[in-house]
């Protein structure tokens, strides 16, 4: 009994291997075809051959469904196809761009600017509030020390994670600042 099951299993395996090998060779021949319509017909013929030679009974675990609408075309030839432009809603674009502002680099983005200091004040915790001649007001956000005097020429440069540094031209120190006005 066990021997007969083993022989049947062996014969089935050899048969399926041959079918599988033939199918792979046929699929490779189809893939080598340059014309898209002939290639599609070749693939269809391989599938038809497989359907006729391999049992197509669905197993209990598979669920076979048929499409409801048979009137819609499945494929359109490339010469008849019209390009479809899908408009993405503004809300969806905002959701897709969320958190990625730092990934987009503007080609015209300014990385550093130079200003002349109009006035300097020390506020609580000995932090600086610097006013420039153009009217901008910047305040210090870290605890580092930097000597800045009115009339000094300073450089504001962008750092990582959106931080901005203020540095005087004659010192090799810098402080983190934020614009107030």
Folded structure, characterized:
This protein has helices spanning 2-32, 36-53, 90-97, and strands spanning 112-123, 127-132, 137-140, 153-158, 164-168, 175-179. Among the domains are: 2-53; 112-179. 31% of the residues lie in helices and 21% in strands. The chain is built from three helices and six strands. It has 181 residues and is α+β, with helices and mostly antiparallel strands.
In short:
With 181 residues, the protein is of the alpha+beta class. The protein is 31% helix and 21% strand.
Estimated structural class: alpha+beta
Unreliable stretches (pLDDT < 50, length at least 5) are none
Q: What percent strand?
A: 15-25%
Q: Spatial order of the strands in the main sheet? A: 1-2-3-6-5-4
Write out key terms for the chains shown.
single chain; 181 residues; alpha+beta; 6-stranded antiparallel beta barrel; 3 helices; elongated
Q: What layout of secondary structure does this protein have?
A:
Layout: H1 2-32, H2 36-53, H3 90-97, E1 112-123, E2 127-132, E3 137-140, E4 153-158, E5 164-168, E6 175-179
Antiparallel strand pairs: 1-2, 1-4, 2-3, 3-6, 4-5, 5-6
